[in-house]
């Protein structure tokens, strides 16, 4: 399930002052990949999780000079796979300091045409997946003295989007989950936040209709979708010490139309 793609060799003890071990789900593409590149530039150790084995292997090879990187092929909806991948990370890297949940799927389907299987799959990846990775990472973070969790939600979880009831419900769920877990985990040294981007130019939005994209673009003050590398700095801030300390259980919204773009 996992492979170490560097010669530098993980295994050093997790440290709050040295390089952090950062787990990123959905790291093969888009926002997750940009976040991985940003943490690699900080010299952190990375564990890339995705169901796209070739995608994370390619990214790991690209980042190998900058960081200690391991790749873990995992379906984020599968509890056993997620638990095993997190255990591999802790064993191979010696701990786990930061978890970024970026795995996600999106389809545009009016409710009247929504197949229950489509609803269930979206909730499974976009909400259950966040639950599972947090569920299995949290005890290791607590045992290691603390950590940071950053969940990638969406503006659609706050505003809703037509043709996206399933996705909007899942992302609203991620925001509620984040706030609840923040209360539960902060006293144990783990700070939990969400980032809620507006539309970002990634393969995820390829499936949206031209009408949907045109209407969305017209709402954005800068007149364009965000770029993955514009999301990463907010995630780095929330993972930073002490920069992220003031934000606990918050939902920040880069490129949201409300906040920055
Ligand atoms: P993307 O399609 O580029 O990347 C998503 C990644 O998740 C892919 O690598 C994919 O293989 C992985 N993934 C999907 N299902 C998985 C599963 N079952 N198990 C493991 N991995 C799985 O999309 P993106 O735009 O980078 O999206 C990243 C996150 O940002 C998602 O949670 C998405 O909902 C959120 N988001 C995206 C936008 C946007 O406009 N692109 C806006 C707001 C929020």
Automatic annotation (TrEMBL):
UniProt xrefs under SUPFAM superfamilies: NAD(P)-binding Rossmann-fold domains
Family: Belongs to the short-chain dehydrogenases/reductases (SDR) family.
Domain Ketoreductase, residue spans: 20-203
Native source species: Streptomyces hebeiensis
InterPro entries hit by this protein: KR_dom, NAD(P)-bd_dom_sf, Sc_DH/Rdtase_CS, SDR, SDR_fam
Descriptive protein name: SDR family NAD(P)-dependent oxidoreductase
């Amino acid at each position: 399930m996992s492979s170490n793609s560097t010669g530098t060799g993980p295994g050093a003890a997790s440290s709050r002052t040295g390089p952090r071990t950062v787990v990123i789900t959905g790291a093969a593409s888009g926002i997750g990949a940009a976040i991985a590149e940003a943490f690699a530039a900080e010299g952190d150790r990375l564990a890339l999780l995705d169901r796209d084995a070739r995608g994370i292997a390619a990214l790991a090879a690209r980042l190998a000079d900058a960081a200690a990187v391991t790749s873990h092929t995992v379906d984020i909806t599968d509890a056993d796979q997620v638990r095993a991948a997190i255990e591999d990370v802790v064993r191979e890297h010696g701990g786990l300091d930061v978890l970024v949940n970026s795995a996600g799927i999106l389809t545009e389907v009016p409710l009247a045409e929504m197949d229950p299987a489509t609803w269930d799959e979206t909730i499974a990846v976009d909400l259950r997946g966040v639950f599972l990775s947090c569920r299995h990472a949290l005890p290791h973070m607590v045992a290691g003295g603390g950590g940071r969790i950053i969940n990638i939600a969406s503006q659609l979880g706050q505003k809703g989007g037509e043709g996206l009831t399933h996705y909007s419900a899942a992302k609203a769920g991620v925001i509620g989950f984040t706030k609840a877990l923040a209360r539960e985990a902060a006293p144990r040294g783990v700070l939990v936040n969400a980032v809620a981007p507006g539309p970002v130019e990634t393969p995820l939005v390829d499936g949206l209709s031209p009408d949907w994209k045109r209407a969305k673009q017209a709402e954005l003050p800068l007149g364009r979708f965000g770029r993955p590398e514009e999301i990463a700095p907010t995630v780095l801030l929330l993972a930073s010490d002490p920069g992220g300390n003031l934000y606990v259980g918050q939902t920040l919204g880069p490129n949201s139309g409300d906040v920055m773009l």
